[in-house]
Amino acid sequence: MSDPGWPLYEVFLRSKRGLNHVHVGSLHAADAQMALRHARDLYTRRNEGVSIWVVASADITASSPDEKDPFFAPSGDKVYRHPTFYDIPDSVPHI
Amino acid sequence: MGFDTAYEAITEESGDQRWAFGTGFADPLAGVDTSVPDGVAGADLAAYCLAIGDDALIMSQRLQEWLARAPELEEETALANIALDLLGQARLLLTRAGHADGSGRTEDDLAYGRGPDEFRNVRLAEVGDADFGGLMARLLVFSTWRLALLDRLRASADPVLAAIAAKGVQELTYHRDYAAQWLLRLALGTSYSRERMAAGLAAVAPLTADLFADSDLELRLSPEVAPRPAELRAEFDEVLATVLGRASLAWPDAPARPAPRGEHTRELGPLLDELQSVARAHPGATW
Amino acid sequence: MTEALDVTEALEQHFDEVVARDRRIEPRDWMPEGYRKTMIRQIAQHAHSEIIGMQPEGGWVTRAPSLRRKAILLAKVQDEAGHGMYLYSAAETLGADRADLTRRLITGAQKYSSIFNYPALSFADVGVIGWLVDGAAICNQVPLCRSSYGPYARAMIRICKEESFHQRQGYELLLTMMRGTPAQQELVQDATTRWWWPSLMMFGPPDTESPNTAQSMRWRIKRHTNDELRQRFVDMTVPQAQALGVTLPDPELRWNAERESYDFGQPDWSELKRVISGDGPCNAERIERRRAAHEDGAWVREAAVAYAARESKEASA
Q1: pLDDT tens figures, B234-264
Q2: Complex ipTM, two decimals?
Q3: C63 half-sphere exposure, CB direction, 13 A CA radius
Q4: Hey, where are the domains in chain B?
Q5: Which chains are adjacent to chain A, needing at least 3 Cβ pairs under 8 Å?
Q6: Which residues have a Cβ under 8 Å from the Cβ of C81 and sit 6 or more positions away?
Q7: B221 touching C, CB under 8 A?
Q8: Contacts of A62 in chain C (CB under 8 A)
Q9: What CATH topology corresponds to B40-250+262-281?
Q10: Which of the pair, C40 or A82, is modelled with greater confidence?
Q11: A55 and C68 in contact (C-beta within 8 Å)?
Q12: Which of B138, B187, C37, C119 lies at a 20 to 30 A Cα distance from C312?
């Protein structure tokens, strides 16, 4: 199945009562315009008048959450550079 | 403000948990005088509201068939939104019809109690779609036409119709945009999607003439209560030309005899059978 | 070598401390591989359950017997799609990929709540599913709002707020039907009889047969045991059944004044095993529907990707 899949976008909302945009989750879309419409569909069904930002997840650069902690990897990593769940083939036993 | 508080501000609701739709749901008919205006024939107003109410009801029903069948989860949400918007318009319009003709029939009496020969929707609303491309073609045509109509109905002499139209315009603007975006993506995506999009247009083109044919009812109601259907053609053509132009698609050659409202395809019967099946199995029951 | 082990040990200790203090683990935190895998599996299964859960009730939207019920049910099923998306999004913060999780659901490599393998045979089932199935889900889910993994806990807060309307609407439908015609009352009683035991099974096997519970509790992925939640559900639901005027199909159900709780019979656990392993009434149908939607929609998704690529090429030209 050569399904290219839609990339991941992070969604930020500012409610009419809030002061800043807050991260509420992510969704998939083929491009940013579609992502904005999807975010409107998914996150504003119960609240009107929110401001929506969408950012491609790949464009987000994140620091480590605990800067003081000497054990964490250097900051400035991309968000999704984890060993993924699917690196190991199913045929490998005892994993 | 801690993170959790800000987040919860976004999910905060009115606290009245009986409402399905939470905050931001305002009654579009709040404060509107519901008596039939002087000089307007109640029977005509009712027949008109029933017709455009049926359009929304039947179109919504077709969209509901896409539940758990949409091409992606995000499209499930979008299609359900559109179906809910149209259902909401249908409920208000059917209620208006039952009030305006003095019969007191409710939205449910009208939705569940009539047979196919009594429905007044256009054929475009009732036909099924071969695939998602077909659905988008039909939705684009329907939404573009209906938006043009509701836009003009905001000035209707009937305050209820005007209020319904005012709310509907916002909704239809979104529906039209959604369909247009998909038309572009499918037309300019892959060669297969382009083929399917063209096929979708070919399927709905013959049904489009129905939308702009003036009937006696509409001639009597214009210009104060409702516009003549023919007046909507110019805006419709312009919007479609713009969208199709960007998509490099041609509007199919589709000479067709326009059918008057009340003339239906074979598809309406089975659709209504399903819509009405449970209600008819329990005559007189409250749900 | 020893240094690396020390670092891992220290990271694990830090992780354990954060969890023990009831603080949240966030996507960028170090976490034991077992925690990550368990979390992905649990969140994914929860997400799959929401999506598959659209089907039993979704099948009644076109036939809803009043326009108000139609709108309510459509909104509810739409919510379920949304909940699935919130949860897939939480799983993706752990490095999973939604398309991959969908493939695993379709091939049967990942599961969903077995409750959705039962058929919704009448419109009364819509009400009973809202009352019992969403009721049980709420029992499970409210504690998860304090689950240790941040994105999951936050998704659960949003879901719980939305789900409280689901249960109320289901119960309201049943109240209306029980005050209605004899035929309606019969439908409600019949649906209750069919859904009661499967709802109890939603909490999983008895604690004595749940080997993973201890680790999940330590990691604060799970906040209460299966039996604790099941008891809570029974205690909340019995009075609701009494208010409705339906009989729950358990001859052993009785109030125990000493425990201040209801005694109740044990579900047929062999049935749960069978249904989980694929032998329920609707397993094949549920997966097939999801598979068909996903595969039939591939050309649409591909078109959107091709269009986006073309647009971005033109933009940078």
Answers
A1: 999 999 999 999 999 999 988 888 999 999 9
A2: 0.94
A3: 20
A4: 40-250+262-281
A5: B, C
A6: B73, B76, B77, B80, C50, C51, C54
A7: no
A8: 28
A9: Ferritin (1.20.1260)
A10: C40
A11: no
A12: B138
